[in-house]
Amino acid sequence: MPVIKLTHPSLAWTHYNPVHIISGIDVVENLQKLIPQHKILFITTKGFTNRGITAKVLKKFGRNRVIVYDHVNSYPELDDLDFLTNLYRNSGFNCILALGGGSVIDTAKVLGVTLLCHLENPLNETLRQNNPHVWNQSLPVFAVPTTSGTGAEVTPFATVWDQSTSKKYSLFDKFLFPNIALLDPTLTLTLPYKETLYTGLDAISHSLESLWNKNRTPISERLAIQSIKIAIKSFPNLLKESENLYQRKQMQISSLLAGLAISQTKTAIAHSISYPLTSYYDVPHGLACSFTLTTIAKILLNERIVSNSQMIFSLLEILESLDLAYEINKYINYDKASNLISFMITPERAGNFLRAIGKDEIDMILQESFGHQCH
User: Fold this and answer.
1) Per the domain annotation, does 2 fall within a domain?
2) Residue 8 lies in a domain
3) pLDDT of 8
4) 339-368 as b/e, with b when 16 or more CB fall inside 10 Å?
5) Which residue, among 177, 261, 167, has the nearest Cα to 213 in the 3D structure?
6) What is the rounded CA–CA span in Å between residue 22 and residue 113?
7) Do both 131 and 222 map to the same domain?
8) In terms of C-beta density within 10 A (0-12 exposed, 13-18 middle, 19 or more buried), how is residue 280 classed?
């Protein structure tokens, strides 16, 4: 096999990210200074309502200015989002404030475009029925991430799930970029161990997938490398000390940098493999998109397709110490996963990978990643 070494992106590239990023402590206390005097749709979860965050927002802006939607679930559903679009379409909102993880922020980004859209059920018509549509405007979205993993606060993507058909859709448009991303590490302190683990793995997946990506730019490459360097130092420490604010802040930065990287490149083969596992077997996204990383990285390292090998080896040591094969087998085994291989090669994700990949190689990756022994 010839040696292929691709260490630099093409000379022709563009890079764009319009999100205004603000970092600090207690950003909720300063929201009034950042959000204009408008009517606000506040999107969050019951957990933050129960912890008193919703009450703080209402106190800051006044109950007459804020309508609260706090029923976001882990995977934003197509029909639910169309329902919310019709529920709030004529409510006179001037902006959307999203406080939560990736699902909350994705919900806000979707509503940002659908609330101003003339289609009756925009997602059903554009995604399920596959009718072409151009999004041409959006409500301002202010994103406050409370997990360190998705990077949704700085990306032009939003994930929409259709459980009726076990499909996952991605909206992609410049109008899905939030206007402002507000980073406050104190909001991540209450994240339980499993969510800290899985969201951290999601961030690591984003940085690696951005590096082994045909669409990478010199800027996205540096963002991804810096994200990985921070994760190598902070992720193991955070898993041991979940209330360490410094480590929380570091992983928040790592997640942000990885999000900035994939905002240019999109994700690649590990994410392509992951989506059927989540759609059919409810495997948490961060685990589904990360349990194959070690196997994929070793293939590329052996073929000398990626650079920064020492850094990647250091990251792989961390991933191997987490025994992700054990974690994934709690949700699904190799035999069930292998039945989904035909759904795992999606052009919009697998096509971003540095080289072509087929079903037989996906099967090998699954076998290795599940710790499956062939007989």
Assistant:
1) no
2) no
3) 58
4) ebbebbbbeebbbbbbeebeeeebbebbbb
5) 261
6) 23
7) no
8) middle
Q: Pick from 150, 183, 216: which residue ends a domain?
A: 183
Task: Extract the residue ranges of the chain whose pLDDT is less than 70.
Answer: 1-10, 373-375
For the question of whether the overall pTM of this predicted structure is more than 0.85, the answer is: yes
Only one residue has tokens 């939003």, namely 158
Beta bridge partners of 95: 40
The Cα 94–Cα 65 span in angstroms is: 10
pLDDT tens, residue by residue, 75-102: 999 999 999 999 999 999 999 999 999 9
Q: Are 15 and 217 in contact (CB under 8 A)?
A: yes
| Residue 185 CA to its chain's centroid (Å) | 18
Q: How many domains would you assign to the chain?
A: 2
Partnered with residue 99 across adjacent β-strands are 144
- Can you give the CATH number for the domain in which 97 is found? 3.40.50.1970
The predicted-structure confidence for 108-151, as pLDDT tens digits, reads as follows: 999 999 999 999 999 999 999 999 899 999 999 999 999 999 99
> Do 159 and 199 lie in a common domain?
no
Domain that holds residue 123: 26-183
